[in-house]
Design brief:
The complex is a heterodimer of chains A (about 300) and B (about 190).
Chain A: H1 6-9, H2 12-26, H3 54-59, H4 72-76, E1 86-91, E2 97-100, H5 101-107, E3 111-118, E4 123-133, H6 134-138, E5 149-154, E6 174-178, H7 179-182, E7 188-193, E8 196-197, E9 207-209, E10 222-228, H8 235-239, E11 263-266, E12 276-277, H9 285-288
Parallel strand pairs in A: 1-10, 4-11
Antiparallel strand pairs in A: 1-2, 3-4, 4-7, 5-6, 5-10, 7-8, 7-9, 11-12
Chain B: H1 2-25, H2 33-62, H3 68-93, H4 98-107, H5 109-126, H6 130-136, H7 138-144, H8 146-161, H9 167-181
């Protein structure tokens, strides 16, 4: 399955309306209620590709820094301070740089990117992110020839993030990608969703999103991007290496040791909706399968 | 007064069921309703296991026999909520598609042990009537000690399915272990150490 274009999901008229809505945000009319967007209309489109509601996307989150229950991030992140925010790009690079969020939003234009999010727990959402390819940002530094992987470090601030006061994971949250994965155009720096500023509970101000991998690979509230020579150990690998691999590509044929990954539940579909089959690489195989040619994906899970 | 106690226990025990029905039909289960029902019925099964196991220690501590008369009702509610839990998983979640279910039961240890616990509940539910108590005599008591095994299985089922945070499931295991420990009679009290 291809990543879907907006026009495939929504009738053209509504699509155009939405364009004008996005423009109006640019003009400062951000007070427009989200309910004016006709997304929640359930009568059209294939269920599987239907956008998940803004409410579900922003109130049902795995973000252990703010608590381990799905409703915790929304509840506990509202007063989280995201300004000022600086991202340091360092490690095996010729010239490390530090960029503020303001600089980043001036340098890169965000576009709408609708991707499916598949959580390792067996549920999925379709999210209209705003963002740009991480490769654009990474191309601002020249990696040395030692650099093989990119490590992402999230913020450590237990005063504001009460989940970090407990040793649920080894804080700060850490994730990693191979350089070619990080440079892939689908790997996105997320700055917003539904045409709005990215909510704190979704990883503001700076998160990444890798649509063909399980959700936990897409680190939130990132402060440091580091080019490294050796494969980093992510927080989840640290917590349970047998269950969470470095690659963590969505793969219906490789079960989590404790549950099956063959099917998933679509968030917001109601109690009588059946499970749907999980797609290889979350449906992005055409774009990304070539990154893993010749690799045993059962071994490198 | 006393004759209202047992129906009272029955009504109180039905409340979680009424709550979940209300939530299902008024759409109050949130973004992952099936998971919510599964967790709800699973957790209430464990709560009823703990309640059932509390009756005989309560009798000992309060010196009131009335507690024992609630045990059967509570035990049957264990079976009731466990069955709802199983049906949610088999029917609502997996639509009775047996091959992934059998795959899960055979490969995933938390599902295996959960299913085993439910199977062990079956003979207890079948032999719960007064008639059966009389029929089985001493064996009835022995048979119904299976609830100790079921309780341990139930709490392990919960621990093994949790992603990393074991706090809540661990609380159940500890409560169950305490309730079981209360049953161990200290036998060496009268031993002559001469």
């Amino acid at each position: 399955m291809k990543k879907f274009k907006y026009s495939e999901i929504t009738p053209e008229e509504i699509y155009k309306n939405r364009r004008s809505f996005i423009k109006s945000i640019g003009l400062g009319a951000s007070s427009l209620a989200i309910s004016t967007i006709p997304f929640s209309n359930k009568s059209f489109a294939n269920d599987r590709d239907k956008l998940t509601s803004y409410k579900d996307i922003t109130t049902y989150n795995n973000y252990y820094e703010f608590g381990t229950s799905k409703s915790d991030p929304y509840r506990n992140s509202q007063i989280f301070k995201t300004t000022p925010w600086e991202i340091s790009i360092e490690g095996e690079v010729e010239k490390p740089i530090k960029l503020s969020m303001e600089e980043i939003s001036e340098m890169f234009v965000s576009e709408e990117r609708i991707y499916r999010l598949r959580c390792v727990e067996g549920w999925s959402m379709v999210i209209p992110w705003m963002g740009f390819s991480l490769s654009k940002l990474l191309s601002k530094v020249n990696p040395t020839n030692k650099a093989k992987f990119v490590e992402f470090e999230s913020v450590y601030d237990p005063a504001q993030m009460k989940g970090q006061r407990y040793p649920v994971l080894n804080w700060p949250y850490n994730e990693g990608l191979r350089i070619d994965e990080a440079m892939h155009p689908l790997t996105t720096v997320v700055t917003g969703l539904y045409g709005k500023k990215l909510p704190n509970q979704n990883g503001a101000p700076f998160r990444i999103f890798i649509p063909w991998k399980y959700g936990f690979k897409s680190a939130k509230a990132i402060v440091k991007i580091k080019f490294v020579e050796n494969m980093p150990t992510s927080s989840w690998m640290w917590a349970s290496p047998r269950e969470y691999g470095f690659y963590s590509n969505v793969n219906p044929n490789v079960d989590h040791p404790r549950w099956s990954q063959a099917t998933e539940r679509i968030i917001g579909e109601g109690v009588w909706a059946p499970r749907v089959k999980t797609l290889m690489f979350n449906g992005y195989g055409d774009e990304v399968a070539s990154l893993y040619t010749g690799m045993d994906l059962k071994k490198y899970f | 007064m006393k004759k209202y106690l047992k129906p009272g226990v029955f009504i109180l025990s039905s409340i979680p069921f009424l709550i979940i029905l209300y939530k299902i039909f008024l759409n109050k289960l949130g973004p992952e309703p099936v998971k919510e029902i599964t967790h709800f019925t699973g957790e209430w099964t464990l709560i009823f296991i703990c309640l059932t196991l509390s009756m005989s220690p309560l009798k000992r501590f309060t010196k009131l026999t009335v507690w024992i008369s609630f045990r059967r009702t509570l035990g049957l509610f264990v079976f009731f909520y466990a069955t709802l839990h199983l049906l949610t998983y088999v029917g609502l979640d997996y639509r009775f598609s047996w091959s992934p279910i059998l795959d899960d039961v055979s490969k995933k240890k938390y599902i295996f042990i959960g299913f085993a616990a439910w199977l062990l509940l079956l003979p207890l539910a079948i032999t719960s009537s007064q008639k059966m108590v009389l029929l089985l005599k001493n064996n009835w008591k022995k048979l119904h000690r299976l609830i100790y095994v079921i309780a341990i299985f139930g709490s392990l089922h919960y621990i093994w399915l949790s992603k990393t945070i074991f706090f809540r499931p661990l609380v159940y295991l500890i409560i169950i272990l305490v309730l079981l420990a209360l049953r161990i009679k200290i036998k060496n009290r009268n031993i002559n150490y001469g």
